[in-house]
Amino acid sequence: MRVAKILFLTSIFVCIHSIALADSQNSKFFGQAGIGGVYYDFGGENISSAGAYVGGEFGWEFFNRVHTIFGVRLGGGQSKASQVLGVAESAGFVISDQYVKVGVNIAGVNAPLYINLLTERNNHDSKNGLSRHLSLLGAEIEGALPLGNVAKLEYSAGYAFSTGDSSYSIAEKTSYIEKDFSKSYVLSASVGFVRNLSDSTAFYTKLIGKYQNLNAAYYSDSTQGYPSSSNLVGMLEFGFRGL
């Protein structure tokens, strides 16, 4: 599954990049860097995490119709737990998120609406607390609305399902989340504001919310490692964007 995803996305990237090289006037590179705060509410058990991260994106847009985006978030913070076997009441954690999107604009240039296919990896690692690794495949809509000549409102909404690589780890023992497209999924939404500072730079701020409905996770001996859960994730990010 993982190899197929990599090959599929790499093939798309190579094809699109070839088009860009053939006509560079109709393509543009863009990137952004920012900092943010994040909060995790782990359902199923009384566990929560709060922290901060640095994030970055870069990508290419072609003919104002097709884009490909690579993104990462790196950070950490503190987790709190209450009466969870094998999980410390207070523990540090590290997050590492990576995602890739490929999309097509079905609307206009000034108010684009992209339909994206995406793959994402969300990692929440803690030596003495709860660790969780989510591998996701899905789709989203991503658009923007102009607010005058120098600003715009950005928004997105998406659905992704958990693959068989998703897992929890407690006390160095790993259990895998049952794969079920209808019962193990993530709903996400975001809204953001962008203001141009010059022809090539802009300031942005974005609020991101996620609802995670996840099946129970089991060890190799079929005993349950973590119960089914409904979880919430909130992020607030701001930074600068360049074209």
TrEMBL record:
Signal peptide limits: 1-22
Keyword Signal attached: yes
Protein name: Outer membrane protein beta-barrel domain-containing protein
Keywords: Signal
